[in-house]
UniProtKB/TrEMBL annotation:
It comes from Simplicispira suum. It comes from the Bacteria. It holds the Pfam family DnaJ. This is Molecular chaperone DnaJ. SMART domains: DnaJ. InterPro entries: DjlA_DnaK_co-chaperone, DnaJ_domain, J_dom_sf. Gene3D superfamilies: DnaJ domain.
Length: 94
């Protein structure tokens, strides 16, 4: 499974559209390459943009959520490992 879109925006899967829009604005502003000199700012900005593109569209979000649930059920140990790695990575952020 690729990057977790909810994690990219720092949101739970129960987030509302308003939550998604607010988180996108905050994260996009923070990671925008013109404002953030970090070497991974452009990549993080891209991940935030992609997450917003998927989660702000009701149909794409439903497909994404369905796929997330399927992946969790198909290989729960791998999914748990990915979730833990994403969590640890997020804890290392400034």
């Amino acid at each position: 499974m690729s990057e977790d879109h909810y994690s990219a925006l720092g949101l739970p899967a129960t987030a509302t559209l308003a939550d998604i829009k607010k988180a996108f604005r905050q994260k996009a502003s923070f990671y925008h390459p013109d404002r953030n000199a970090a070497s991974d700012a452009a990549a993080r900005f891209g991940a935030v943009q992609q997450a917003y593109d998927v989660l702000s569209d009701p149909e794409r979000r439903q497909q994404y959520d369905d796929n997330r649930r399927r992946n969790l059920l198909d290989d729960p140990l791998e999914t748990a490992s990915e979730i833990w790695q994403a969590y640890v990575k997020r804890m290392e952020l400034p």
